Amino acid sequence: MTLSTTPELTEETRRSLLNTMVLIRTYEEAIRREYYADKMPAFDIGAGLVPGEMHLSAGQEPVAAGICAHLTADDALTATHRPHHVAIAKGVALRPMTAEIFGREDGFGHGRGGHMHLFDPSNHFSCSGIIAEGLPPALGQAFAFKRQGNNRVAVAVTGEGAANQGAFHESLNLSALWKLPVIFVVEDNDWGISVPRSESTSVTSNAVRAAAYGMPGVRVENNSVEAVYAAGGEAVARARSGGGPTLIEVHTLRLWGHFEGDAEGYRPELKSVPDHDPIPRYRDELLQAGWLSTEQFQAMQDRAVEQVEDAIQFAKASPAPNPSEHLNYVFSEGVNS
Amino acid sequence: MTTAPTSTNQSVTLPVEPEPGRRKLSTAKAMQEVISQRMTRDESVFVIGEDVGPYGGIFSSTTGLIDQFGPERVMDTPISETAFIGLGIGAAVEGMRPVVELMFADFFGVCMDQIYNHMAKIHFESGGNVKVPMVLMMATGGGYSDGAQHSQCLWGTFAHLPGMKVVVPSNPYDAKGLMAAAIDSDDPVVFMFHKGIMGLGWMAKNSRAIGAVPEEEYVVPIGKSRVAREGTDVTIVTLSLSVHHSLDVAEKLEADGISVEVIDLRSLVPLDRDAIVRSVTKTGRLIVVDEDYQSFGLSGEVIAVVAEHDASLLTSVSRVCVPDVPIPYARELESTVLPTPARIEAAVREAVSR
Predict the structure, then answer these.
(1) Are the beta carbons of A109 and B126 separated by less than 8 Å?
(2) Which one from B150, B194, B244, B245 is the annotated catalytic residue?
(3) Contact: B90, A133; criterion CB under 8 Å
(4) B179 and B100 share a domain?
(5) Of residues B6, B83, B131, nearest to A139 (C-beta)
(6) Is the CB of residue A143 less than 8 Å away from at least one CB of chain B?
(7) Nearest-CA distance from A321 to chain B in Å?
(8) Are residues B191 and B66 part of one domain?
(9) One domain for residues B233 and B96
(10) What CATH number does the domain containing B75 carry?
(11) Which chain B positions have a beta carbon within 8 Å of A337's beta carbon?
């Protein structure tokens, strides 16, 4: 297997990328634990402390870590129905994010949004549960940044299935036409729920579609965090310097089901999926190269568990939204209809 | 996701519904004027849409703005409604105040997700932490044989979905003041102008499409209806071009001793429920005139408002709407389904005979 590492990075950057990936995985494992905790023995999607659909991002950490390493809190990012990894990598605070996932008053949306609708204005982070529809608002954020004359950028993350949606193509064209500072990141995890990309997509790489809109397109293979980091750095620099948008597709991995409760009977390679887990692979590469010690890795894990469990406890301690306030927030002035 | 306010219009308080004065404008010119006034003093306001630049908007909503503000602030877009409405949303989230034009309301089918799942829901989903101060304006209505895909009103569809204010002016004065209020609003506002009220030179128009408009800026508050004509025998609750027809009918029937009150709703969301109840309390007879489709829409909602308040108020209820068929092309058919003055007059005579 090809190494995930590239020669240019400092040890510190490499450990930082791994650290982000470890934090994300720790978070997703904890959410998964809490999600199932009170749904046993019979799975009831609406039951428990964390109800509803739950799309976890395990396996896709390299995308989040590699791209967001180039962003600041002032840059914008729009994510998908599977948003936790990019939220965490973008720097979104775990406490209000987790409280929102638990549907509590201290969540970002005071329990109105849920895990597919996380809005952190201080990080210019948002997500949408509708495939490809997070792209157009990212264009508007980039438009505002360009108009404001600063060098902030907007990143629109989406899946490979979204590349067959009209919103995707409209957004690529308009962003290239107006040279907006946008980076489109397509997470190709091979599956649109149960449909393999070979049955949904006419091209083997969505990166080639960039050429149709006059923008650079690059495909990163092998779920390599360092290759994502390199591609992301180039694209972000291009956007910041007025060079317009870039399309990056990353061949990543959906380690778990489309959503929790998905038995994945449609997935022939199911048993071998864990063998492709990007985190142990990258950890081992760094360990073998001497860029990481086992003590450093242990410290990363300990710190991640501490942060994540703190957020879970915060969410559990937060009150439920007051049912008498169910009409709030439809409009800013409080008038509903 | 505004960290630093870019809008510069917040400190200005505008007069509310001043005297109209003597200067007359078409509704289209009134809209152009107020957008221009807002853009002049607020850098965060910009206009995007199809043919809003040199063409000036297919229904003249933006005529002249590009000459005044240039292509940086008045931008023609590709025919990509999802992309440019979404762009408006993202810009609004970052503190700008976009005025986005969807050419025909009928075109919402290609971009509704951005409208109802994003523009209208972000404020709610974010628990009030993210505002979307955006105007989405669009042309509505028929009466000129434009067929089933270019003649619909559809305001009931937008009003049904929570999170959007829905504004429907009937005349130049209201259009200017409501557009000012729409641009000022921190919430998304769908601004629906009937082609027949714009005062276009190339379309038959009611004389009420041209009217007195103050030169100064002012607001007409969103959610406040207007008694367009006072009366005692029957209440017509209506909006947009149907206000013109209803007033024509009311004037005609005055000679027959029938006194018609006409309520111009001016907005669906918020709906001025108090004004509806107040008028029906006086007249006891309610007719809803609505150029939108009849079933599952505004007309039923207005009647429900009264019924839920006190059903015994109603000695007569009827509605003059588009029956549940698509708008036909042939003139003879289209004029049959639209709420024409003849249909309104018949409904009033029927109501007062009860």
Answers:
(1) yes
(2) B150
(3) no
(4) yes
(5) B83
(6) yes
(7) 11
(8) yes
(9) no
(10) 3.40.50.970
(11) 162, 269-271
The domains found in chain A, sorted by start residue, are 11-318 (3.40.50.970)
Q: How close A140 comes to chain B (CA, Å)?
A: 4
Q: Are residues B40 and B107 in the same domain?
A: yes
Is residue A288 left, alpha or beta, with left meaning phi > 0 and alpha meaning psi from -120 to 50?
Answer: alpha
Domain count, chain B: 2
Cβ separation A141–B123 shorter than 8 A: no
What is the distance in angstroms between the Cα of B100 and the nearest Cα belonging to chain A? Answer: 12
Is there a contact between B125 and A117 if contact means CB atoms under 8 Å apart?
Answer: yes
- Per-residue pLDDT of chain B (354 residues), as tens digits, is 654 445 555 557 899 999 999 999 999 999 999 999 999 999 999 999 999 999 999 999 999 999 999 999 999 999 999 999 999 999 999 999 999 999 999 999 999 999 999 999 999 999 999 999 999 999 999 999 999 999 999 999 999 999 999 999 999 999 999 999 999 999 999 999 999 999 999 998 889 999 999 999 999 999 999 999 999 999 999 999 999 999 999 999 999 999 999 999 999 999 999 999 999 999 999 999 999 999 999 999 999 999 999 999 999 999 999 999 999 999 999 999 999 999 999 999 999 998
Question: What is the distance in angstroms between the Cα of B323 and the nearest Cα belonging to chain A?
Answer: 25
| pLDDT tens, residue order, chain A (337 aa) | 455 666 689 999 999 999 999 999 999 999 999 999 999 788 999 999 999 999 999 999 999 999 999 999 999 999 999 999 999 999 999 999 999 999 999 999 999 999 999 999 999 999 999 999 999 999 999 999 999 999 999 999 999 999 999 999 999 999 999 999 999 999 999 999 999 999 999 999 999 999 999 999 999 999 999 999 999 999 999 999 999 999 999 999 999 999 999 999 999 999 999 999 999 999 999 999 999 999 999 999 999 999 999 999 999 999 999 999 999 999 997 656 6
B15 lies in a domain? no
B150 catalytically annotated: yes
Instruction: Considering only the beta carbons, identify the residue of A122, A136, A147 that sits closest to B86.
Output: A136
Asked if B293 contacts B321 with a C-beta cutoff of 8 angstroms, the reply is yes
Q: B191 is in which domain, residue-wise?
A: 24-212
Contact state of A170 with B83 under an 8 Å Cβ cutoff: yes
Which ipTM value was assigned to this complex?
A: 0.96
> In terms of domains, do B270 and B237 share one?
yes
Domain assignment present for B323: yes
Report chain A residues whose CB lies below 8 A from the CB of B126: 108-109, 112-113, 117, 119, 121, 126, 329
Residues 5-64 in A contacting B (C-alpha not used; CB under 8 Å): none
